[in-house]
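Dear support,

We are seeing what looks like truncated structure output for some complexes. This example has two components. We would appreciate it if you could run it in full and send us the complete token output so we can diff it against ours.
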Amino acid sequence: MGRYVVRRLLWTVLVVLIVTLLTFIIFYVMPPGNPAVRFAGKQPTPELIAEVEHNLGLDRSLPEQYGLFVKRLFLGDGDECPVGISGCGWPGLGVSYDSRTAVREEMINRTPRTLALIVGAATIWLIMGVSIGVVSALKRRTIWDRLAMGFALFGISAPVFWLGLVALYVFSKTLQIEALGTGYVEFSSNPWGWFTHLLLPWFVLALLYAAFYARMTRGNLIDVMGEDYIRTARAKGLSERTVVLKHGLRASLTPIVTIFGLDIALLVGGAVITETVFNIQGLGNYTVQAAQGADLPAVTGVVVIAAFAVAFMNLLVDVAYAYLDPRVRYS
Amino acid sequence: MSVHELGEPLLEVRDLKVHFPTPDGLVKAVDGLSFDVRRGETFGIVGESGSGKSVTCLTALGLITRSNAELGGEVLFKGRDLLAMSGEELQKIRGKELAMIFQDPFACLHPMYRVGDQLVEAVRVHDPVSKQVARERVVELLSAVGIPRPRERFRDYPHQYSGGMRQRAMIAMALLHNPDVLIADEPTTALDVTVQAQILELIDRIKTEFRIGVILITHDLGVIADVAQTVMVMYAGRSMERAGVVDLFGKPLHPYTWGLLESIPTVVQKGTRLMPIEGAPPSLISVPPGCPFHPRCPHRFSPCDSERPDFKDRGGGHPEACHLSVEDKRRLWSERESRRTQVAV
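Here is the complete output from our reference environment:
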């Protein structure tokens, strides 16, 4: 198992490299126009453009630029930080064209916000989705099942931006609960404020996923409850509660773990709407700004983080799967 | 007959009816079934798929309840009616006094728990002993049912066991609490022939050693001939014939049983023609009136399609449900037997 994990980690590095190469090609090679022109002021002289190109490293050949990018990514760019810019180091992600700040520093500031959002929302949607799914599977075709599946339909259909705005309108504007307002409060400065300001975003983001997970749990559990080993569990004389919660859930949650890992990974850099509606300056927010402004180092920075998150969560899911289902063993 | 050697009746089924309401109509899976299982007896139930064998046993185990079926009659287990018991009362009996093993040992053990842990769980449901004590009992039983190196195999997952070993583990699980009745629902159908014989031998040995009553459900008459003392032939949720194993194979009285016997391939009478029963079993939603077998019966006559024959003993401790007289049946069976061997020559 240990060897397997190490090998997979090395693969993860390779995946991240390939993703950065594709990003590099998409953002540096394909778009028309010269980024240096934007930095050279309103009436750029050719000499000025050439100087900016030199400063940004754009006068080098493309393979050389990519090589430099990879070298900084792995070795850090602390000793190459341009004058007047702080926050360079490992991993070196360059300097944003737009804000003239080190991308690395932005990542360090923004990643915890996005992670706080994702982890809280994921906890909520997992608990909510699975418990609703279980109730609905066990009370199939009763009013509880209908209510739960009605909720699921609502959750899947309601767009996050609408839900977010409605939540803000109700709690923040109408009920005037200031603690539930927008923005992000640093945990270190005010833990309670951090918590309350994240509550609405957590629930709004969680609702969509909770609905999916409820339907998935319901379907899986209904299938599993028809399995022969559930009949065996009953024949042993176990209570229905143990049969469902120990034998039934165990088997039906295994596939959910896979989806859960990937859902979390995709939200790193992907929780754009929630971050925007609730004004959380996280990674998703940054991605959109960077893409709109053709801020190439910023875009590549987010892509590196997101690619790493996806690859790493994949590994985690595979390891968890082997742990949960003994029939799966990697070597 | 060896009935006098057998002990007291453990399970008495009286006029059992199990009907499932479905959108297409009422499925009469079991319709008026009566039989007794005694201590020290292996009671075989034979019949085609869908004849109600498994439903009977699942009902006896309380796994089919009034919430999913319409139940009638009674199932007396040591004098108490299982059909009248609450869910909690049944839970206390299930897996303890009344145990069951199933057809497909590949699917019957939970794939994600260790075999040993699943058995330990089964011990501790009914007996609040420590894990160590439970573990010892499990290892002992695994060894008793013939699992080699039980202490190591205890830690294995079901997929690391062969089919025969899984069925042995299931049997061990069923025996943990010294049950009075063991219901075995097609326990050997999914296994290799050599393993089949070992499992049947194991069940037979257990029956003798523990002096329990065994219900053995199968569609394989060869299995029945090996281990059962009494055999009941089921068709369309009813019993057609019940007799001691020697009588059933030597002097069968019901045309359906004849059909079943004639469709077994034998090596001893090489060249004997196989004669399948024409037609297919009826839909349990619209069972034919009268005798349910009459549309497929070559000997049917006037009352067969209108009057349901009583299931009763017409002498000789060999009850059956057929309108033909016993003399006619003896004659018809010997004719069929001689015809069958003539075909072979």
